[in-house]
Amino acid sequence: MDILVVAGFLGSGKTTLVISIIERIIERTGKKVVVIVNDFGTVGIDGKVMTKYGLQVMELASGCICCTLGADLLHTVEEIQDNIAPDLLVIEPTGVADPDAIVQAMAHYEKGEIGTIRSAVIVDASRFDVIMKALNRPLTAQIRSAFLVLINKMDTVDGSEIARMEGLLRDLNPTVPIIPISATEGTNVDQAVEVMVRA
Ligand SMILES: Nc1nc2c(ncn2[C@@H]2O[C@H](COP(=O)(O)OP(=O)(O)OP(=O)(O)O)[C@@H](O)[C@H]2O)c(=O)[nH]1
Ligand SMILES: [Mg+2]
Questions:
Q1: Tens digits of per-residue pLDDT, 93-141?
Q2: Per-residue pLDDT, 187
Q3: C-alpha of residue 115 to centroid of ligand 1, in Å
Q4: Alpha-carbon Rg for the chain in angstroms
Q5: Is 11's C-beta closer than 6 angstroms to any atom of ligand 1?
Q6: What is the 3 state secondary structure string of the chain?
Q7: What is the pLDDT of residues 144-176, one digit of tens each?
Q8: Residue 10 near ligand 1, beta carbon < 6 Å
Q9: Which residues have C-beta within 8 Å of that of residue 74, sequence separation ≥ 6?
């Protein structure tokens, strides 16, 4: 069971993206996918997607899954493994959670069934400077350890702004793929999925 953590600040578009990638990942790979989110909030899930693929979606109780529910997350992962045994588990932590903490928590996992654990980090183009300034240290750490960085809400800014953000992110991580996307409009989402499904 591989784990994909979709991280990013509050409101950056994690749930919107997760919902739009699930169907594409299943279609491309035929994998059995389980998604853990904290809260569907305003996004809602398309019931047709769920039934079409027999997708399982679990919502954890409120709170940060890596900080306050570390043990619960392990327990949830164990239950998922025992009862569903998916090929891929997608976890959306709360916007304040540190994805590395999830990776570390999984290191204590004893079932020996975990394959790769990778985190994709979403940054919000519409609030880039404010968030970068307020959360410089945690965001820098997230971007350094990410296997994929997505600049979301590209529909809200112009191309030169995207290029500027890309430059700043590139300084933090010289090798990571950085893809500007619009999760609501679907722009470049296939390109992001391409990186996610790559072994
Ligand atoms: N313009 C624009 N809005 C977006 C995009 N992606 C997400 N949004 C909006 O941003 C808001 C937050 O999206 P969510 O997907 O709930 O973000 P989240 O990161 O899951 O939020 P939390 O779980 O609360 O941290 C919603 O109103 C979305 O419609 C995008 O690409 N462009
Ligand atoms: Mg969300």
A1: 776 666 677 777 776 666 566 788 899 999 999 999 999 998 888 889 8
A2: 98
A3: 29
A4: 16
A5: yes
A6: CEEEEEEECCCCCHHHHHHHHHHHHHHHHCCCEEEEECCCCCCCCCHHHHHHHCCEEEECCCCCCCCCCHHHHHHHHHHHHHHCCCCEEEECCCCCCCHHHHHHHHHCCCCCCCCCEEEEEEEEHHHHHHHHHHCHHHHHHHHHHCCEEEEECHHHCCHHHHHHHHHHHHHHCCCCCEEECECCCCECHHHHHHHHHCC
A7: 999 999 999 999 999 999 999 999 999 999 999
A8: yes
A9: 105, 106, 108, 109
Largest alpha-carbon pair distance within the chain? Answer: 48
3-state secondary structure 36-68: EECCCCCCCCCHHHHHHHCCEEEECCCCCCCCC
Q: Which CATH architecture has domain 2-197?
A: 3-Layer(aba) Sandwich (3.40)
The predicted model scores a pTM of 0.89
Ligand 1 binding pocket includes 8 (Cβ within 6 Å):
yes
Hunting for tokens 């999760």 — which residue is that? 183
In the numeric block, the tokens 């997608």 are attached to: 90
Residue type, 142: Q
The response to whether residue 18 sits with its C-beta less than 6 Å from ligand 1 reads no
For residue 119, give Cα distances in angstroms to 42, 77, 150. Answer: 23, 16, 11
Token pair 């991580």 is found at: 173
